[in-house]
Amino acid sequence: MTTSSRSDSVGDGGRGSGGRDLTKLSASELADRIHAREVSSVEVTEAHIQRIAEVDGEINAFLHVSGEEALLAAAEVDKSIAAGTVASPLAGVPLALKDVFTTTDAPTTCGSKMLEGWVSPYDATVTARLRAAGIPILGKTNMDEFAMGSSTENSAYGPTRNPWDHSRIPGGSGGGSAAALASYQAPLAIGTDTGGSIRQPAAVTATVGTKPTYGTVSRYGLVACASSLDQGGPCGRTVLDTALLHEVIAGYDPRDSTSRNVPVPPVVAAAREGAKGDLAGVKVGVVKELHSDNYQPGVISSFDAAVAQLKDLGAEVVEVSCPHFEYALASYYLILPSEVSSNLARFDAMRYGLRVGDDGSHSADQVMSLSREAGFGPEVKRRIMIGTYALSSGYYDAYYGQALKVRTLIAQDFDKAYESVDVLVSPTSPFTPWKLGEKVNDPLAMYLSDLCTLPTNLAGHCAMSVPSGLSQDDGMPVGLQIMAPALADDRLYRVGAAYEAARGAIA
């Protein structure tokens, strides 16, 4: 289905009191109504479960739907609210969880045959915080296998389709979470961002996604792709919704050795302040190296219009140069595969997961080899081989060691830029969503979609994608990326909310 809006692909959805479609309300609106007892969490959750049943057969955003468990959690929230207790500002609002976070009541597959049907004995910290906040989990969302990809075509369970055009990709690796939001199957979602896997799907589905500062959202129970880059984060349809979810999942966790023991930035207050539409005193830097004639024309025109809007809101806009950003792609695609090679060594068929050839006629090494051959898809195998080579004797210094030096230079570029500006902006992705299958056999073309997002991961800073409209080229969504220094996540929400309010609704 090809359409320049989602109206044909989302239907009417469930309706609550007042007749308004519950699946079309923002998470903050749903929370207000649930807490005022105008509608129950069970009603809201039922409406979204119905929505999933109606549309996900075509979109394939979910790998597992936890309908019964979500309704039980919603019922508990309703009981608590009736007793005068509200667990969190989002209590009762259901959510879709990327299938890379462990859950004790649903499989965690990471989009791979290697973990098909595997149920974790423990909840990830993010999962536990969602439960403690009274947020019913609707299910686990589709993703590129082990979070490796930019299109959600690398999932072992079939691709997810973009709700704006079912013939196009929804981004990756977290395309399932973004598509669930864009098709109104969930009002909130959780993703992970290793090189843009929250922000790029948000951009191409006209949703909002934030990559928090590295170390501020626990990675305990997040199945590792590249440990120095991975970061869980919030996804929503509005900046405020995303901020509310950010505050639920962020915070120190002693079980994560990389967790920062610092206060959570006041992201909700910043979003509410930004929505007033005044950016006077804010200095915005346009990154010269992330504005190219090689980008899709509709992306550039949408970005330029967004920058003009920021000026109209009172922001001072200047151009800044980050000269080492041009080496970010090469650096990233050495560091990430190297960490993948190390992290995925644990999937050895000896302790858990897929086991092939375990009939007594094969050695342990043969079982391991057969299982990894059958369990991993082509992109995962490609990255394991690249990473193993980059880490091998005689090549470590030439490849991995050099990539780490470039990473340092990129971080220094950011530091210098932030001496003169508060935030940096760029397109989120150089391209709008492409057709399914169009780039699946061209890894380099796929990797180029991460050009704008991955510098932030290399530096460990924070960034957000907020919709900037529809491309004049093909009517597909475009995203504005806002970047800020480490632990300055609140700046993203202030600028993002101000721009969102001024931009207005997207068709």
From TrEMBL:
<dbReference type="GO" id="GO:0016740">
    <property type="term" value="F:transferase activity"/>
</dbReference>
<feature type="domain" description="Amidase">
    <location>
        <begin position="43"/>
        <end position="492"/>
    </location>
</feature>
<keyword id="KW-0436">Ligase</keyword>
<dbReference type="Pfam" id="PF01425">
    <property type="entry name" value="Amidase"/>
</dbReference>
<dbReference type="InterPro" id="IPR000120">
    <property type="entry name" value="Amidase"/>
</dbReference>
<feature type="region of interest" description="Disordered">
    <location>
        <begin position="151"/>
        <end position="172"/>
    </location>
</feature>
<feature type="active site" description="Charge relay system">
    <location>
        <position position="173"/>
    </location>
</feature>
<keyword id="KW-0808">Transferase</keyword>
<keyword id="KW-0648">Protein biosynthesis</keyword>
<dbReference type="InterPro" id="IPR020556">
    <property type="entry name" value="Amidase_CS"/>
</dbReference>
<keyword id="KW-0067">ATP-binding</keyword>
<feature type="region of interest" description="Disordered">
    <location>
        <begin position="1"/>
        <end position="22"/>
    </location>
</feature>
<comment type="similarity">
    <text>Belongs to the amidase family. GatA subfamily.</text>
</comment>
<dbReference type="GO" id="GO:0030956">
    <property type="term" value="C:glutamyl-tRNA(Gln) amidotransferase complex"/>
</dbReference>
<feature type="active site" description="Charge relay system">
    <location>
        <position position="98"/>
    </location>
</feature>
<dbReference type="GO" id="GO:0006412">
    <property type="term" value="P:translation"/>
</dbReference>
<feature type="compositionally biased region" description="Low complexity">
    <location>
        <begin position="1"/>
        <end position="10"/>
    </location>
</feature>
<dbReference type="InterPro" id="IPR036928">
    <property type="entry name" value="AS_sf"/>
</dbReference>
<keyword id="KW-0547">Nucleotide-binding</keyword>
<dbReference type="InterPro" id="IPR023631">
    <property type="entry name" value="Amidase_dom"/>
</dbReference>
<dbReference type="InterPro" id="IPR004412">
    <property type="entry name" value="GatA"/>
</dbReference>
<comment type="subunit">
    <text>Heterotrimer of A, B and C subunits.</text>
</comment>
<protein>
    <recommendedName>
        <fullName>Glutamyl-tRNA(Gln) amidotransferase subunit A</fullName>
        <ecNumber>6.3.5.7</ecNumber>
    </recommendedName>
</protein>
<dbReference type="GO" id="GO:0050567">
    <property type="term" value="F:glutaminyl-tRNA synthase (glutamine-hydrolyzing) activity"/>
</dbReference>
<comment type="function">
    <text>Allows the formation of correctly charged Gln-tRNA(Gln) through the transamidation of misacylated Glu-tRNA(Gln) in organisms which lack glutaminyl-tRNA synthetase. The reaction takes place in the presence of glutamine and ATP through an activated gamma-phospho-Glu-tRNA(Gln).</text>
</comment>
<dbReference type="GO" id="GO:0005524">
    <property type="term" value="F:ATP binding"/>
</dbReference>
<feature type="active site" description="Acyl-ester intermediate">
    <location>
        <position position="197"/>
    </location>
</feature>
